[in-house]
Every structure is written in C-alpha cells, then in structure tokens.
Design brief:
Elements: H1 2-66, H2 68-77, H3 81-92, H4 101-125, H5 132-151, H6 164-213
Helix pairs in contact: 2-3, 2-4, 3-4, 3-5, 4-5, 5-6
C-alpha cells in the first residue's frame, strides 16, 4: 500500500513536470512570434536604410560625372574646346551596362556635345578669315575628338576629318591669303609714298614758278 502510494506520487510529479515543460515551450514559441512581429519591420527598415546609404554614397561618387555633359556644353559655349575634349575623355571611360542607365544617359549627352564640337571645328576649318594658327588648332582638336568618338563606335564622324591633306590645303590657303594681304599692303604703302612725293615735288615746283614770275623790286 505504501509502495503503491509512492509510485503513484512519482507518476504525478512526472506528468506535472511535462506539463510545465509544455507550458514553457508554448510561452517561448509565443514570445518568438511576438518578437518576430515586433522586430521584423525594424529589421526591414534597417535593411532599407543600409540600401539607401549605399545608393547615396554611389550617387555622390558618380555625381561629378553626371554633371560633365552640362560642363561640356558650358565650355563649348565659351569656345573652350580643349576643355570639352578633356571632359569627353573622362566620361567615355566610365563603364555602363545593366543597372547603370543614369551613366549611360550622361555618356550619350556627352557624346552629343562632342558631335557639336566636331561641327564647330569643321566650321573653323572652312572659315575664310581663320588664321593659320586657328586652322592648325582646329585640325588638332578635330583629330582628338574624332578619336574619342570612334572609340565609342560613332561612325558618323567622317574619315576625312582625320586626313592630313585637309590641313595642308587649308594651311596653304591661309598662307596664300596672308601673303596676298602683305603684298597688297606693301603696294598700297608704296603708292601712298609715291603720291606724297609727287605732291611735295609739285608744291616745290609751283612755289619756284611763283617766285620766278614775281617782278623784281
């Protein structure tokens, strides 16, 4: 009877222990679910903040390149052609591809300004009033910008833009124009000197005739 009573008590303690474990497990699972509901939005927000900071840092790094097309256009307006080419060379070296649409747009804008520079340089090359130095500089810059555009596979830059014969022809025309201006200037100066000498001689002759025609006192 005593043994039976002792064994029954042991079984009761075991059942109670298991019940407590189940209760604790239930509480832990409930706490985990509550924590997940509470912290999941915070973790998601933290992830968004990290992504935002990364994007901001990347944009800050690239902002200097995104401003290049506007800087190129300003330099083109001010006729600072070498500066336009320097900007174009910088931005065309940037990588582009999936996820870099903003860089691709900046590069396309820079190429558009470079093409405008080509047209302006061609205008200088055919300008009848351009000096030899201006022609040489225009040809040199045209070769540089053509190289950049060809590197971007922009075949709309004509091959003859890089032919040295064009420079030679323009240089000869410029030299001939300058030489003609020099000859004409020299001729006009000599004509003026002759006309002045003739006038002075005539005045002297007329003065001498007047004195000869005057009656003696």
């Amino acid at each position: 009877s005593a043994l039976s009573s002792s064994g029954g008590g042991g079984d009761g303690d075991g059942v109670a222990y298991i019940a407590r474990l189940q209760t604790i497990e239930t509480l832990v699972e409930g706490a985990a679910r509550d924590a997940q509901r509470t912290f999941a939005p915070l973790l998601h927000r933290l992830k968004d903040i990290r992504s935002y900071r990364l994007a901001k840092g990347t944009l800050g790094h690239l902002s200097a390149y995104l401003d290049v097309p506007a800087q190129m256009r300003q330099a083109l307006t001010e006729k600072k052609y070498p500066q336009v080419i320097d900007y174009a060379r910088r931005i065309t070296l940037l990588p582009t591809g999936d996820g870099l649409e903003v860089l691709q747009k900046a590069k396309e804008d820079a190429i558009a300004v470079s093409l405008e520079l080509c047209r302006e340089l061609k205008t200088v090359m055919v300008d009848a009033d351009a000096s030899f130095e201006e022609l040489v500089l225009a040809q040199e810059l045209l070769v540089k910008v053509a190289s950049i555009l060809e590197g971007q596979r922009r075949v709309d830059v004509a091959a003859q833009d890089r032919q040295p014969e064009l420079l030679c022809t323009c240089a000869q025309l410029s030299h001939a124009r300058a030489e003609l201006a020099r000859i004409v200037g020299t001729f006009l100066r000599q004509v003026k000197e002759v006309a002045t000498a003739v006038h002075e001689t005539r005045v002297e002759i007329e003065g001498g005739d007047t004195m000869s025609a005057s009656p003696n006192p």
